[in-house]
Amino acid sequence: MKMDTGSPNLAAPPADTTQDILELTVEANLIVATDVQANAYELRSEFLMQRRLARVRYQNGVT
Fold first, then answer.
1. pTM of the model
2. Which residue stretches of the chain have pLDDT < 50?
3. For residue 42, what are the domain limits?
């Protein structure tokens, strides 16, 4: 009988494609339209940075 290690079977986070970035830009612009203090470029950049960091952590074995 094989013992369960308790760690989930995680897949690598996907790379950002041009289509993903375009869709994210459109979504950020829609969010900014309802909030005068929001900045679409900052919002998109922060989200992309978080996704990149998640990929790097995965590649380095930190899940």
1. 0.65
2. 1-3
3. 18-59
